[in-house]
Amino acid sequence: MRIVTVRRISQVFFFLLFIWFCVVTTIGVEWWQLRGWPVNWFLQLDPLVAVATMLSTSSLYKGLLWALVTVILTVVLGRFFCSWVCPFGTMHHFIGYLAKRGKRVSAKIALNRYHPGQSIKYYLLIFLLTAASGSLLADLLSTVQERPILFSLVIIGCLAGVALLSLLKVLPNPKNAFKLLIVFIGSWLILGLLFPSGKIIAASLQTGLLDPIPLVHRSINLTLLPLAEPISVGQRYYQGSLLIGAVFLTAVLLNLTVPRFYCRFVCPLGALFGVLSTFSLWRIGTRESTDECSRCHLCDVDCEGACQPGEEIRLSECVLCMNCMDSCPHNLIGYRTTASEAGELALPDLSRRGFLASFLSGAVAIPIVRLGGLLGPNWQASVIRPPGSLTEPDFLSRCLKCGQCMRICPTNIIHPAGLESGLEGLWSPILNFRIGTSGCQLNCIACSHICPTAAIRPISLEEKLGQGQFAQAGPIKLGTAFVDRGRCLPWAMDKPCIVCQENCPVSPKAIFTREYFSTVRNGLFRLLHVDEQTLELEGDDLLPNQLATGDYYASTTHQGTEQRWRIASNTSNKVTLSAGESSGTALEPGKGIAIQVRLQRPYVDPNLCIGCGICEHECPVSGKRAIQVTAENESRSPKRSLIL
Q1: What is the largest CA-CA distance in the chain?
Q2: Is residue 155 predicted with pLDDT exceeding 80?
Q3: Which of 162, 225, 269, 643 maximizes the CB count within 10 A of its CB?
Q4: What is the rounded distance in angstroms from the CA atom of residue 232 to the CA atom of residue 271?
Q5: Contact at 8 Å (CB) between 56 and 132?
Q6: C-beta separation of 2 from 326 below 8 A
Q7: CA-based angle 428:275:305, to the nearest 5?
Q8: How far apart, in Å, are the Cα atoms of 641 and each of 140, 181, 471, 477, 610?
């Protein structure tokens, strides 16, 4: 069997497996819904996820240890993941194949020439990893200040590492590498001695914006699958899906211009694999001297990485598509452990200025973004995170923006954020209680158990509800509901409504009501005739059965005391009292009477409200809800407490 056939089988298998994992990331009772499938497996295989979270948190979530398998295989086999496993790479490969069909051989060769712009992805990788390294750098600065001996050992270890790479000829210019390392360590040493670490560094995990595995998860989960779901489980909605879909389609359709455009120019995961593949034991290369090659360039016709396999091959760009081996008519290209006879270029083309610009911009980007105070005094009360979310700085240092929590939410209330939480919070999960089928259900903890990086930490039902060993701490609070008296029907419009109070799920209810009687507009009449239960009014202003809801009363003052009788029905000028309601002697012809409505005005007890949002979802005011949940009093941030 041809090697390219094996590769295609692998691509189809892993692509279908990925789609299956996306489909089954659904709570339900059907056979195709979640049944213990490892739906985060592709994310866990992603070494960029593991490296970035380790830099941003100084820890490694145990599920991400799977990434070590990918790293080891890459060091042994080369950059295999891109052309054999990655579902996004498979999409690019297929669209690029369709775009090249019918083109001349010379045109295909031109499309697959190496372009200097392919180094852009390495600069993006440096930027993203530097932005994520705040936690590690904070630990380094604290080490400088508190444990100088340990810091000295770290310096010695770094210098030894540079020396080893020089001996292995991985670093072409070890002198410059030593200078760069010493400048880097010296700069952080000075900053650590002069400034508190929190003032100059901050960690924020932004790799998920461009990392292909979170990107394709987010795109499939929030744009493509919802288009097919009305047939099966009902329509799901996601705010901001237009932008997510536009980014996805742009990345895919650029293959019509340049094959695997995203992989070659943008993909930070591909850049990481490119760096790792320079150490690989097995590699693509020519078997014979260059004199044997006819320079037909057929090996470049279908080269997916634009790595120049027939010349000095660029190892960091080779994605192991094996097309060059299959295309060479002289069988001069092979996959082996020895270096290519035509020569190799191990490292990517990176300029010193470009490296420093990427590094410094990544180091200062997050502190500058946070000058807006969104994590401090200017925090946005509209940003409500799912139950179990870490404090906002820790949350942003872990969240991949992969959309897994949004996909699994059974009530469809977890959505990708826009700019509500700032640039660094783009596409992170927030709660929107207007969309979906309800609020956050009391017996649901699905989102906390699917998060691959524990940005939403795993919680139990006991902890969420504040039961058992968590009784003293109380239930997890997402925020607090507030009644907008300018929009609430009983408060602003004299319309009876207790929907929010009826649907409040906590016990005792966090929403309670206080009774109030209000005279309706034009509700003052004079009695013309009175019998036992029927009152005839002067005028002809009532709508038939307008007062038949059981919320309206006839009211008058008798002997200094206000008395009321419930109304059962009415005509345009007559009111019938409810059975058992007798007018007695209090009502008589000629006396004034008021038609009043009984209102139950809602109030919220912040001690009991958990911010589940069910009241906001069920509120009958269809536009901006008359009761809305904000993040005040959330459990994860004690500084946002309403109650002393």
Answers
A1: 121
A2: no
A3: 269
A4: 39
A5: yes
A6: yes
A7: 90
A8: 33, 45, 19, 10, 12
Over range 575-596, report the average pLDDT.
81
Element of type H or E holding 21:
helix 3-24
CA dist 344 and 279 (Å) reads 12
User: What pLDDT was estimated at residue 63?
Assistant: 84
Secondary structure of residue 568 in the 3-state scheme: strand
- pLDDT at 609 (0 to 100): 95
pLDDT score recorded for residue 427: 95
Q: Is residue 277 within a helix (H) or strand (E), and if so which, with residue range?
A: helix 268-277
Instruction: State residue 441's pLDDT score.
Output: 94
Phi, psi of 433 (to 5 degrees): -80, -10
Q: Which two tokens stand for residue 276?
A: 């790792």
> Token pair for residue 125?
């990788």
pTM recorded for the entire structure? 0.86
Give me the helices (H) in 314-370, please: 323-327, 352-369
Q: Which of 434, 374, 471 is nearest to 615 (CA)?
A: 434
Helices 47-57 and 134-146: crossing angle, nearest 10°? 40
What is residue 84's three-state secondary structure? helix
pLDDT the model gives residue 493: 92
- Is 306 within 8 Å of 118 (Cβ atoms)? yes
- Asked whether the predicted pLDDT for residue 196 surpasses 60, the reply is no
Inform me whether the pLDDT recorded for 154 exceeds 60.
no
- Return the exposure string of 326-365: e unless at least 16 CB atoms fall within 10 Å of the residue's CB, then b: bbbeeebbbeeeeebbbebbbebeeeeeeeeebbeebbeb
Helical packing angle, 212-219 and 268-277, nearest 10° = 150
Confidence check: pLDDT of 252 > 60: yes
- C-alpha distances in angstroms, 93 versus 116, 161, 305? 21, 37, 10
Average of per-residue pLDDT across 562-576: 90
Residue 197 CB contacts under 8 Å (≥ 6 apart), including other chains: 137, 138, 141, 142
The CA distance from 424 to 394, in Å, is 12
Sort 224 into a burial class: Cβ within 10 Å, 0-12 / 13-18 / 19+: middle
How is 357-405 classified by DSSP, letter by letter?
HHHHHHHHHHHHHGGG-TTTTT--TT--PPTTBPPHHHHHTT-----HH
| Residues paired with 558 in a beta bridge | 561
Bond from prior residue into 508 cis (ω within 30 degrees of 0): yes
Question: How far apart are alpha carbons 130 and 205 in whole angstroms?
Answer: 10
Three-state SS string across 283-305, please?
Answer: EEEECCCHHHCCCCCHHHCCCCC
Residues ≥6 apart with Cβ < 8 Å to 109: 297, 300, 301
Nearest in space to 415 (alpha carbons), one of 641, 204, 613: 613
Look at residue 494 and tell me whether its pLDDT is greater than 80. Answer: yes
Distance from C-alpha of 587 to C-alpha of 392, rounded to nearest angstrom: 64
Q: Which amino acid is at 530?
A: V
Concatenating the DSSP letter of every residue in 126-191 gives: HHHHHHHTHHHHHHHHHHHHH-HHHHHHHHHHHHHHHHHHHHTT-SS-HHHHHHHHHHHHHHHHHH
The more confidently predicted of residues 173 and 19 is: 19
Report residue 241 as tokens: 């899906």
**In this structure, which amino acid lies at residue 325?**
M
**Which amino acid, residue 45?**
L
DSSP state of 617: H
